[in-house]
Structure formats: structure tokens, C-alpha cells
Amino acid sequence: MKKKKKTLRIALLALFTAIIILQNFIPFLGYIPLGVLNLTIIHVTVIIAALLLGPKDGAIVGGVWGTITFIRAFVWPTSPIAPIVFVNPLISILPRILIGVVAGYAFIWAKKSFHSKIFAASLASVLGSLTNTFLVLGQIYLFYRGQSQVMYGLDTAALMPYLLGLVLTNGIPEALIAAIVSPAVAVPLAKRIK
After folding, report:
1. Is the torsion defined by CA of 151, 152, 156, 160 positive or negative?
2. What is the pLDDT of residues 81-104, one digit of tens each?
3. How far is residue 62's CA from residue 17's CA, in Å, rounded to a whole number?
4. What is the pTM of this model?
5. Alpha carbon distance 29, 32 (integer Å)
6. What is the third-level CATH fold of 2-193?
7. Does residue 151 contact residue 137 with C-beta atoms inside 8 Å?
8. Distance from C-alpha of 93 to C-alpha of 116, rounded to nearest angstrom
9. pLDDT tens digits for range 116-161
10. Dihedral in degrees, nearest 10, Cα atoms 157, 160, 165, 168
11. Of 75, 76, 71, 83, whose CA–CA distance to 144 is shortest?
12. Domain map (residue ranges) of the chain
């Protein structure tokens, strides 16, 4: 029985890794372009992995996404600022890993506290998504606020309102998508796997 469980875990990790790779390279599957910005939906895959497999495996799947983001910043950037900010692994890799960690542990805690898998999955999904948003944008502000004139055509004082605007236009819709889609996929899939 233990061998079957380990095999299933490895198969699911491979499946989620393949989905992450496809989402990164097939247009509109992982990034929905909205003018100069991209609405990201890849985090939903990381969250679903964390809900099904736990925080450790969620971190692995998030790390795959982060590593692809890091590499793409050099060879095939997803936005005009990607080659500037995502070449820093603290911005490209760390937040993606922490999506899985936060969503996984939040799900475990919320499931015990609220006794509702759907509510727990929704709450964990929002927290995982916002982890990515706040860590990426917060670190952009910390590391690149002195370079905002070059990067964004903004003076340093205008960088914070610009980043807060991104939270509203990208971060909140991404969190809402995660709160709806992740439980809708993960909860029935968890029942099916068991």
C-alpha cells in the first residue's frame, strides 16, 4: 500500500510539473495578456498541487514554476519588466515556492478549524495567491525602487501607487480565480484519488 501511495505521489508531481511547463509555453494557458500586463493563472496549478499533495510537494511544483520564470527572464520574457526583475531568484523563484507552502499549511489548518474542505480550500487558495502577489511586488519595491525611472518610466514616489494598482488589477482577480477554481478542482479530485 505504501508503494502505491508513493507511486501515485510521483505520478501526480510529474503531472503537475507537465501542466506548469505547458502553461508557461502555450499562449493564453498560463498568462492572459491584458495590454502590457499579464493576468497569471499558473498559481492555481501550484495551489491545487498543495491542496492535494501537501505543502512540501506544493513547494516543489511552485519551485518548478519559479525556475521556469527565472530562465524565461533571460531567454523569452513574459513582460517588458521580466528581464529586469525576474533575473533575481528572490523575486522569480522564492514567492512561487512559498505559494505551495502557504496554501498547503493554510489548508491543513483551515480544514481542522472550520471542518469544511471547500471553505478551507478557498481560504488556502486566496492566501497562496496573495503570497505570490505581495512577495513579488513587495520585493520589486524593495530591490528596484531606485531604478523605477528606468524600469517603469515612473519616479520613485510613483512606484508604490503603481504597484498597489497592480495588486488591484492583477492580484485581487488572481486571488478570486484561485478561490473559485482551486477548490472546484482539488476537492473532487481528492475524493477521486482516495
Report:
1. negative
2. 788 889 999 999 999 999 999 999
3. 9
4. 0.90
5. 7
6. Arp2/3 complex 21 kDa subunit ARPC3 (1.10.1760)
7. no
8. 31
9. 999 999 999 999 999 999 999 889 888 877 665 555 555 656 667 7
10. -160
11. 83
12. 2-193
